[in-house]
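Input record (one chain):
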Amino acid sequence: MASPAEPAARVFFAIVPPPAAQAALAELARSIAPRVKGRPVPVDNMHLTLAFVGAWPGSRMPDLHVAGAAVRGEPFRLTLDTLGGFRRSGIAWLGPSHPPPQLVTLAAALGDALRSEGVPYDARVFRPHVSLARRVHGRRLEEIVDPVTWDVDAFSLMESKSRPGAVRYEALANWPL
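The corresponding structure, as predicted from the sequence alone:
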């Protein structure tokens, strides 16, 4: 979407867990990474993606802010209790066995807002999850675990920033539910 001369940011919309939930997710990630022969996701990068946009030109960043501000949703309790994986992308994840209707509605409303602003995004079927480990080469996980739960009352526009030896995610904007 960005021209070769215009810098682009790699962006996505997400729910970011509060610190206690991030810590629980990071502990689970460290415990399962050896089982799946993967690398645990850093605690500061724990999130649940609502919509992935990808490379986006800086001059059109206001379109993303307009889309985010247009979304209305209700706060809800999120319970992640099911381990799974995406074999092709080498990801082990934790997701909800029963996604709350408010989460599904929030993702759909965000998709509608992005489309109305002319923002292309990855519109695959929404499969809510938090990535726990990457570069997974071991057995695939499919099991119920002790839940990680938190109350969701906001969502964020995030930027993926590459640094030597690591990628970090930074919130660019937040919207309350």
